[in-house]
Amino acid sequence: MAKKKGKNEWVEWGKAIVIAIILAFLLRSFIFATSIVEGDSMDPTLQDGERVIFNKFVYLIGEPNRGDIVIIQRPEKNYVKRIIGLPGETIEIKNHQLYVNNELYDQRFLTEDAKNHTGNYGPITIPEGRYFVMGDNRSISKDSRNGLGFIMEDEIIGKSEFVFYPFTEIAKTR
């Protein structure tokens, strides 16, 4: 009797482990994943080397919004950028000020230094199904202005939710 009880306990543990592995796989594949911030293009919002959890599910049921910090998947690497312009909108930067559809856009997430290092750009109209992204550290960011171009919706694989490492920086991304 004791032998059977021991065997049943191992079977139950085995089932629990298999279920946990399957759930972890499903969560990582369809709901949440992690990414490492490489470089200083999102400084001060995100720092080089920070690890973020991003939500993959949010864009399966909705669309990206202006201000979202997103993970962009490209063949050579993934990028972390902020959505600035939506499909069909016109973007222009003049005198260090960002205009969306000829209206001044308040960029509270930028430092004064970053605001003052945003050169003139545009006006340019974003094609349908595409997005315009920029890094928060405008003077060094590779983004829609200078290398990434417009971002296709299917290249946006998730929305950054919060920093989980280093532990001293655990916070929701802005």
From TrEMBL:
One of its GO terms (molecular function) is signal peptidase activity. It is found in: Cell membrane; Membrane. InterPro entries: LexA/Signal_pep-like_sf, Pept_S26A_signal_pept_1, Pept_S26A_signal_pept_1_CS, Pept_S26A_signal_pept_1_Lys-AS, Pept_S26A_signal_pept_1_Ser-AS, Peptidase_S26. It catalyses: Cleavage of hydrophobic, N-terminal signal or leader sequences from secreted and periplasmic proteins. It is a single-pass type II membrane protein. Pfam families: Peptidase_S26 (PF10502). SUPFAM superfamilies: LexA/Signal peptidase. Residues 10-165 form the Peptidase S26 domain. Keywords: Hydrolase, Protease. Its EC number is 3.4.21.89. NCBIfam families: sigpep_I_bact. Belongs to the peptidase S26 family. This is Signal peptidase I. It comes from Ornithinibacillus xuwenensis. The lineage of its organism: Bacteria, Bacillati, Bacillota, Bacilli, Bacillales.
